[in-house]
Each structure stands twice: as C-alpha cells, then as structure tokens.
Amino acid sequence: MTLFCLAASHHDVDLDTVARLSAGSSDVLAAVPTGSAKGAVVLATCNRVEIYAEAADADVSGASEQIVSALADSAGVEVDVARRALRTLGPQATARHLFEVGAGLDSAVVGEREIAGQVRRALLEAREAGTATGPLVRLFESATRTAKDIGSQTALGATGRSVVTVALDLTE
Known about the structure:
Layout (H helix, E strand, L loop, with lengths): L1 E8 L5 H10 L3 H4 L5 E8 L3 E8 L4 H16 L3 H7 L1 E3 L1 H12 L11 H16 L4 H20 L1 H4 L4 H9 L1
Antiparallel strand pairs: 1-3, 1-4, 2-3
Helix pairs in contact: 1-3, 3-4, 5-7, 6-7
C-alpha cells in the first residue's frame, strides 16, 4: 500500500480556485469506498484543499484519477482544471508535508495554530466516514502530536499568530 497526497494551496493556485475545490471537497470521502483508493482524509481550509489517500502500489494512478474526478464533479469544475490545480506528493513527501502543515510551517502566517485543529477534525471526519485506514490514522495522529509538541515546546507556538491577528497588527 502507498500513501499519497493531492494538494492545492495558496502557494500554487489562486485562492478562487482553492476555494472552489475546497467547497467541493466534502463529497470526496463518499467516492472513496467504491473506487481504487483504499482510504482518504480530506483537509480543506480557506487556503488549501488536500486529499491524503492510500492505494495499492500498482493502483496509485487510478486512485488519484478517481479522487480528482470526484473532486472536480463535486466542485463543479472541469477535471482538467482540478488536475492542473492539484500537485501529487509521494509517500515521503506526503508525510513531511502533513507535519509541516500541522505545525503551522506551511501556512499563510507561519506559526498559525488553527491548522492543527483542522488536521485533527479532518481525521475525525474520515473516521466517521469510514475512510481512515490504519496508516492514515497513524500519520495524522503522529502529525497532530508533533504539532502539539511544537506548540508547547517552541517559541513558534507561543506567538499566537493567525491571519486575523496579523491583519489587525497591520491595520494598527
């Protein structure tokens, strides 16, 4: 089995496209049990939509296409638009990326703590939908624990930064 991630974020795509894909991401989990993907967790925020998935080694391409199609259909965009917006991460890059996201290192505001809660909620939703496989659960739980440790043991977590607080600081 192989873990992979399909990701579109504020780093790569305009926010309008991210918002459209994010709004359509809620139906992706329903498509997983009937296709090539063995499991999936969807992390959708105002700045990103990421689908962390697991598939048989030989079927990652098919699972990826199934997820892209489900996302495009749900978001009301052409499959090519969704495909171009999403970058694919392999197993090691997937794990590294989730740890960076959960810790607030890959946010519009570095150190933002809200994303850690969104990572926890994404796993909870996948569990409720029955799409959280063992490897995905372990990955998300490890990333959540690490984010908590970073928040409590480093100066990054003590800043209490968020997009809102930065905007307020700038207006002053």
